[in-house]
Amino acid sequence: MSFLSSLFTSLPSSFPYTLSSPRPVSFACTTWQLYEAVHKPTSEACTALTFDKRKGNASVAANAIKRWKTVRHPGIVRVKDVAETEQMIYVALEKISILAECIESACTNQEVMLHGLYQIGRTNQFINESCEMILGTLSTSTIFVTTAGEWRLGIMELLSSPKEDHPLLNVINHNHNNHTGFASSSSLVLALGSPERCITNAVVIK
Predict the structure, then answer these.
(1) The pTM is what?
(2) What is the mean pLDDT of residues 50-59?
(3) Does some domain include residue 189?
């Protein structure tokens, strides 16, 4: 209760949202708090993420914010607002669920699952070919599902360009060498809940 009271009293005025039902969520390199949220001026339901810079890799979180702001595509989760203080990062997103946590409802049949994979593949193709960037990690924990059932790329914390002198590329290369969540334009590896539902080398249609 003291944590919630501290959080709510410290929300910046530039972040006009009411937050509830917090829980930790871990992505590739960072752990955020995920909330049910409501935009105060419009009463629109959405999702919020908060990151404590004192308890995690702030440079990786900052890269996620940078990419959310600069890389836009229908297949990337829609970010409504971002606010930062000296200690915290606050992000408001469209209303989403994390694929890893709603796998049964998000993959009701093979057609739905393949459509979701196709959406993610096309978005990753855009990142690789149009943006000339590498996502760095792709898993059911970094894919979000909207209320309409659309699959979106969510966490951008390891999104980097080979042309940049960027320390995050070291992390990406480590993931690639160990075959853990590396995303390329030609294949996706998504562990969909169980070995029987693991789809390997789902070719992106060009």
Answers:
(1) 0.77
(2) 90
(3) yes
Contact by Cβ (8 Å): 19, 7: yes
* Whole-Å CA distances, 32 to 48, 57, 116, 173: 10, 11, 24, 24
User: Residue 205 domain-assigned?
Assistant: no
- Report the C-alpha gap between 135 and 190 in whole angstroms: 14
Does residue 206 sit within a domain?
A: no
Which conformational region is residue 31 in: left (phi greater than 0), alpha (psi within -120 to 50 degrees), or beta? beta
The pLDDT confidence band at residue 186, using thresholds 50, 70 and 90, is very low
Q: What is the pLDDT at residue 36?
A: 96
Q: Do 175 and 194 have their domain in common?
A: yes
Can you point out the beta strands (E) in the chain?
17-26, 31-39, 44-52, 79-84, 88-93, 96-98, 143-146, 151-153, 189-191, 198-200
Q: Check if the beta carbon of residue 84 is closer than 8 Å to that of residue 13.
A: no
In the chain, DSSP finds a helix count (H) and a strand count (E) of 5, 10
Q: How far apart are CA 64 and CA 58, in angstroms?
A: 10
Mean residue pLDDT of the chain comes to 79
User: In what helix (H) or strand (E) does residue 110 lie, and over which residues does it extend?
Assistant: helix 110-125
Last residue of a domain, one of 75, 95, 115: 95
Six-digit token string for 125: 């193709």
